[in-house]
Amino acid sequence: MTIDPDGHDLEYQHDDLGGASDERNASLGTYVLGLSLAILLTLASFWVAKTDLIYGPGIPVALATLAVAQMGIHLVFFLHLTTAPDNTNNVLALAFGLLIVGLVVFGSVWIMAHLNYNLMPTQQLMQMQR
Amino acid sequence: MSAAGATISTSDPYRLGSRGPNLARGHGGGGPASKRVVVGYGFWLFLLSDIVIFACLFATYAVLSDATAGGPKARDIFDLQRVAIETACLLASSFFCGIATIAVARRNQILTQAALIATGLLGLAFILLEASEFAALHAQGDGPTRSAFLTAFFTLVGCHGVHVTAGLLWLGTMMAQFYAKGFRPDIGRRFLCFSMFWHFLDIVWVAIFSLVYLVGTRL
Amino acid sequence: MFGKLGWDAIPLGQPIPLIAGAVVMLVLLGILAWVAVKGWLPYFWNEWITSVDHKHIGIMYVLLGLVMLLRGFIDAIMMRSQQALAFHAQGYLPPEHYDQVFSAHGTLMILFGAMPLVIGIMNFVVPLQLGVRDVAFPTLNSVSFWLTATGALLVNISLVVGEFSRVGWLPYPPLSELRYSPGVGVDYYLWAVQISGIGTLLTGINFVTTILKIRAPGMTYLRMPMFCWTALASCLLIIAAFPVLTASLAMLTLDRYLGFHFFTNEAGGNAMMFVNLIWAWGHPEVYILVLPAFGIYSEVISTFSGKPLFGYRSMVAATLFICIVSFCVWLHHFFTMGAGGDVNAVFGIASSIIAVGTGVKMYNWLFTMYGGRIRFATPMLWSLGFMTTFITGGLTGVLLAVPPADFLLHNSMFLVAHFHHVIVGGVVFAVFAALIYWWPKAFGFRLHEGWGKAAFWCALAGFYVTFVPFYIDGVLGMTRRLQHYDVAEWRPWILVSAFGVLILLAGAVCQIVQIIVSITHRNELRDTTGDPWDGRSLEWATPSPPPVFNFAILPQVHDAEAYWDVKRRAREMNGSGLEPHYEAVEMPRNSPTGFVCAFFATIIGFALVWHIWWLMIAGLVGAYATFVVFAWRDVPEYVIPADEVARIDRANRLARQEALHGASAA
Q1: Does B6 touch chain C if contact means CB atoms closer than 8 Å?
Q2: B216 close to B75: Cβ distance less than 8 angstroms
Q3: Which of A54, A113, B21, C39 lies 20 to 30 Å from C588, alpha-carbon distance?
Q4: Do B34 and A22 make contact, defined as CB atoms within 8 angstroms?
């Protein structure tokens, strides 16, 4: 093993088909496990939408939670997003993206809810124009 | 671009739950990363920008979901059976894309082409089902020009469909490239981007079927 | 066959656009003919148009930006003169035309002037400062540039074929919907901005990847130059914000083209949603412009004070703070539109808080200068002008951030004064500082100091004389975008402003003269060492202009201010040390992909504006074919042999050794 002055392990990257790096991640077992978990969560989501066993107003929250869980399954098992240090950039980028998504979606819904409450409905406004 | 020296290893000894030697120090002093890492990261950033586009469409859908203008509401037009089949198709398609990734790593041309064909056919089934849903709604007068709610619905789901269609075009090109040029490193990198794209589309679909279709039938 | 396009699209009845268009076309044809006659076409094609070299792409971006800045400035002159004349009168610009002028002014200045300039400077400087050979995706870089050029081309075509948008630089519905803007103007705007927006997004991805994944060995995150940090923050904002622009404009486009009801008055559309989304992009956009400007000032101030930047870590923290908070303030652009006290309060407080980041930076720049040996070269003058101007402009911004105050001042001339104050004082001054600072690196000779100083003083004086009257008029109640007015109180200030524009014009002339004089006297102004300013970062280690591969050997970085460290050791050892071992270098091949892709994008955009569907499909097929052809190429790189690399580097080392010994002998 060759080490550079900063203590990094140097290795020639000659296989860009994912041979060295992705092999440990891209095993059949990983994908089968991911698929099974995703199927379970999907079935759970459809069940939640149909059932009367869950408190009504809580259903959207339950569905959102199941959706987030399933997205996590996809990220870990299909996209191989891990907590490794050389993956930190990817996780940070994802966190940044999620922050922006949160700000845009929840910010917009909050602002528009206030605007819709305060402003005259457009249809009424247009009728006044006639 | 070649540095006068080596590139950093991209192996990942840190699968969730495992322990391994401490390779990356985290301060970023290792010099330029390998092409596969660079291409993968750049495409990951592109996917995040695509997520923001979908976020805007989701926000617009949330704001406009009550603006039915006398037309149909969500529960009037959503067919959960069709949605379930579409979900199964796309999820299975993602799985076969994973198989294709393994096949490419092993340089197995036949398995690669077979897995990619399966991926493509399942994706095509998804698109055809979605197109039939849109056509049926449009035929009964509930197209995107009927109300703001329908506009937002058609655009959000339709945008995802356009992405899937573009992905199928890309898939066809990848199959042609593997067949014509074999398993060259640059084609391998492109395929990494394609597989990231395909899994990302399934992630967006999870959000769509949960928050648009399933929530819509309950509210 | 040709959709809505007909002979009536050419404005034969309007002298101003007709004459302007004719002059521009004659000038362009003249330049093209001159280049062809001199036999330079192959050179331009091989070295510039198909170039994937970040240095050449950066220079082309800056050229595009400067030309569009000039066109936007002409629009400004038209507006000022119209308002000077239009008191109890109609002036010389009818309303339909005046509306196009102010819409074009804003669109061109921000999207096709400031953005290309800032992106061009990032393109040229960042890889050099990181000590690497090029960006992460060189061909994508070329595509980005040419798509931006396509957008600019479409806006300029609208001058002579059809009309431009009349609804302002942000197309608020319902005015921008088909019912109230049936012409092609808004469509030109939409496609020009969408297409160039794709280019900008790709640039953002390219640079974040480069800065985070491709740096010289030993350059840890906290050893990066400050300009690279601000470029990183700006490009992260591009990745986060430009998709919002894409989505918003796409929704408006769907409304106009397919009869959708996102923002219409009927069938439940909600026009305010557009305002909300477009400003969720629009506010980060101005930080996308100003953050690299801050980075430029950090470089210039530390170099011309002869001191390292004070408080590097707090600068990094402030940059990232501004990056995140800029996504939390967008409602302050529409306080008055009815969201209510709660919402307004939250965004008002956030808007005031974001000033803290800039405050930290200002103090750091001041402390950098304190105790330093300041050289008042032209870039330093621009920086000092920035510091006073931006502080006052920013203060008016904090005033506007208070919702009750904003209720009086929203959309008045006070607002116009504020945003020009910060954009001109912040971004435009930075662009000129950067131009003069890095020009020797790009072209091998310095710019003439005297004319540069004249340009600066005219710009500074002209800026204040033009824009301070706007504050007064705003408080006196004058709204923006007025084609004519009847209030006598406003008139004296409008006249002062018009006079100020003449001073700015003098500044623009001085700037152009500076460039011409410098080119004709370039041998006297030659930069022989590659380090004309006694710089501190790695770009000054290369010859001027740098070879295509930038560095013969990627530098090993041991410290922040990498090049200052190298120079210090060279002076201590009284020489540049042993010659390194040279190896062959692989560089990416030039490619016409960017240019051809943009060619098809222009066709697609033009076809969509005029509803020529078959042409649009042909363009899409062509664009896809371009990508497939590019994907099919077998040899993406070419090799520069080791002795060629050695020859170029030996000349550089010799020049520096001579300078070192000359300095120590003197």
Answers
A1: no
A2: yes
A3: C39
A4: no
Q: Smallest Cα–Cα separation from A73: which of A29, A35, A27?
A: A35
Which stretch of B110-114, C2-6, C571-575, C595-599 has the lowest confidence by average pLDDT? C571-575
Q: Which residue has the tokens 């989304």?
A: C277
Predicted confidence at residue A1, as pLDDT, reads 33
> Which of the following is catalytic: C54, C55, C56, C71?
C71
Q: Is C586 helix (H, G, I), strand (E, B) or coil?
A: strand
The active-site residue out of C50, C103, C107, C123 is C123
Q: How far apart are CA C437 and CA C374, in angstroms?
A: 15
**How large is the average pLDDT for residues C465-472?**
97
Question: Which residues, at least 6 apart from C587, have a Cβ–Cβ distance to it below 8 Å?
Answer: B1, C133, C134, C548, C549, C637, C638, C639, C640
Domain range summary for chain B, segments of one domain joined by +: 38-59+80-218
Residue B55 pLDDT > 50: yes
C136 touches chain B (CB under 8 A): yes
Total residue length of chain B: 219
Kindly state the tokens that stand for C235. 């490009």
Mean pLDDT of C549-575: 83
Task: Identify which of C593, C599, C596 has the alpha carbon closest to the alpha carbon of residue C615.
Answer: C599
Task: Check pLDDT > 90 for residue B27.
Answer: no
Question: CB distance from A103 to chain B under 8 Å?
Answer: no
Domain coordinates in residue numbering, chain A? 1-81, 85-130
Residue C410 among the catalytic residues: no
Q: Which of B30, B63, B144 sits opposite C273 (nearest CB)?
A: B63
How many Å apart are CA B182 and CA B172, to the nearest integer? 15
> Which strand (E) or helix (H) includes residue B8?
none
A33 contact B CB<8A:
no
CA–CA min distance C276, chain A (Å) = 7
Separation of alpha carbons A18 and A22, rounded Å: 5
Task: Name the DSSP class of C122.
Answer: H
Strand, helix or coil for residue C349: helix
CATH class, domain B38-59+80-218, is mainly alpha
| Model ipTM value | 0.94
CB pair distance less than 8 Å for A108 and B59: yes
End-to-end CA distance of chain A: 82
DSSP string, B205-217: HHHHIIIIIIHHH
Is the pLDDT at B15 greater than 60? The verdict is no
Q: At which residue do the structure tokens 């004519």 appear?
A: C484
Q: Which phi and psi (to 5°) does residue B5 adopt?
A: 170, -160
Residue of chain B minimizing CA distance to A108: B59
**Rounded-to-integer distance, Cα C388 and Cα C29, Å:** 43
Q: Minimal CA–CA distance to B206: which of B91, B109, B118?
A: B91
Partners of C339 on chain A (C-beta within 8 Å) are 111, 114-115, 118
Distance, CA of C46 to CA of C52 (rounded, Å): 10
- Is 50 exceeded by the pLDDT of residue C463? yes
Q: Which of C158, C181, C298, C529 is catalytic?
A: C298
Which of B:36-65 have CB within 8 Å of C? 37-38, 41-42, 45-46, 48-50, 52-53, 56-57, 59-60, 63-64
pLDDT in the model for residue A129 = 84
- CA dist., res. C291 & res. C316, Å (int): 11
Position A84 confidence tier, pLDDT thresholds 50, 70, 90? low
The catalytic position among C55, C80, C99, C102 is: C102
Mean pLDDT of chain C: 94
Whether B113 and chain C come into contact, CB under 8 Å, resolves to no
Please, are residues C614 and C513 in contact by the beta-carbon 8 Å criterion? no
Query: In this structure, are strands C637-640 and A9-10 parallel, antiparallel, or unpaired?
Result: unpaired
Least CB–CB distance from A63: residue in B7, B183, B215: B215
C171 has a pLDDT exceeding 60: yes
What's the maximum distance between 2 C-alpha atoms anywhere in chain C? 82
State percent of chain C over pLDDT 90. 86
